[in-house]
Amino acid sequence: MTTPEDQDDRAQDDLLRAVEATLFAAEEPMTAEAISTHLGGAEVREALRELAAHYEGRGVELVERGRRWHFQTAPDLAHLLRREREEVRRLSRAATEVLAIIAYHEPVSRAEIESIRGVQTAKGTLDVLMEAGWVRAAGRREVPGRPVIYATTPDFLAHFGLKSRKELPGIDELRAAGLLDPVDDEMVAMELAGDQQSEASDEETPPETAD
């Protein structure tokens, strides 16, 4: 005879399988809200936590980056797939500087980027970062001229293994990872200077949307 407890367990197992299948088939990372909507409004947060625990330490892991969930290869096994992956083009000095400014000061306009760098920024530099999927247009600044403002994307967080911008590394860590080469230390220090204590509030404030 099937008990209510058995029915609850079966329902939970079915939900876990549904969430797992949804993420496996997804073409891009999904928020818990998007998964819930896809599954008819089911509460999925506990299922996500259970799946993350289940896959922890396995060859494929379920991770959350920028409030979006996706499966990824375990970091210690990445070398096994290196030959199968397209080599990432090394960023130019200008693109590296612009990416660092956007990551640490977003949302930021092109004029604000140029003010921090001290030089004009070619449109092609922003295009490269947007084509890489690391930078997006986040609306317009409500000032005369309504300039476009830029911010990083969930793909940026996922690529660098960050859950949120709060985990952005310091200068020494960026240099050790090779991201800052060949940017000189003085320029980088100037770019990353400022009130980083406001980063948390920046994340919580919804970006201004374009008309």
* Discrete helix count: 11
Tell me the CATH superfamily of the largest domain.
Winged helix-like DNA-binding domain superfamily/Winged helix DNA-binding domain
The top-level CATH class of the largest domain is: Mainly Alpha
**Would you report the number of β strands?**
6
| Average residue-wise pLDDT | 77
Enumerate the spans where pLDDT stays under 50 for 5 or more consecutive residues.
83-88, 181-188, 194-207
Spatial strand sequence of the major β-sheet: 1-3-2
Distance between the termini: 60 Å
What structural class do helix, strand and pairing data support?
Answer: alpha+beta
Shape annotation: elongated
State the share of residues found in helices, binned by percent: 40-55%
Q: What CATH architecture of the largest domain would you give?
A: Orthogonal Bundle
The run of helices and strands is: HEHHEEHHEHHEEHHHH
Largest sheet: 3 strands, antiparallel
How many independent structural domains?
2
- What's the CATH topology label of the largest domain? Arc Repressor Mutant, subunit A
- Spatial extent as radius of gyration: 21 Å
Strand content: 5-15%
What does this structure look like?
There is one protein chain. The protein is 47% helix and 13% strand. It has two domains: 4-82, Orthogonal Bundle (Arc Repressor Mutant, subunit A), CATH 1.10.10; 93-204, Winged helix-like DNA-binding domain superfamily/Winged helix DNA-binding domain (Arc Repressor Mutant, subunit A, Orthogonal Bundle), CATH 1.10.10.10. By secondary structure, it is of the alpha+beta class. The protein is elongated, with a radius of gyration of 21 Å. The model is unreliable at 83-88, 181-188 and 194-207 (pLDDT under 50). The strands form two sheets. A three-stranded antiparallel beta sheet has the order 1-3-2. Strands 4-6-5 form a three-stranded antiparallel beta sheet. Helix 1 (4-25) packs across helix 3 (45-55). It has helices spanning 4-25, 32-38, 45-55, 78-81, 93-105, 110-117, 123-131, 154-159, 171-176, 185-192, 199-204; strands spanning 30-31, 60-65, 68-73, 108-109, 135-140, 148-152. It has eleven helices and six strands.
